Amino acid sequence: MTEIIVYSKQHCPLCDKAIAQIEMLKEQYEFSIRVIDIYEDDELLEKYQLMIPVVEIEGEEVDFGQISEKKVLKRLQSKNGEN
């Protein structure tokens, strides 16, 4: 099963919006979502502090900041062999 990771932090409206957008895609595709708080890992905090939310699918950073549902959808489609 495809895993989508969302790098996030607490009290982040952009992160909450991104997670909600991704959750809506579950109607079309089967995947799991894992939310990782960057403040629980110093390396992640250093890497992503100005970028969150960051969406990663199968090890590939797909989008960050204002998450584009189209970018996430396009990556899920390519993962499932769709065009």
From TrEMBL:
Pfam families according to UniProt: Glrx-like
Signal peptide: none
Gene3D superfamilies: Glutaredoxin (3.40.30.10)
Domain of life assignment: Bacteria
UniProt-recorded name of the protein: Glutaredoxin family protein
Organism: Halalkalibacter hemicellulosilyticusJCM 9152
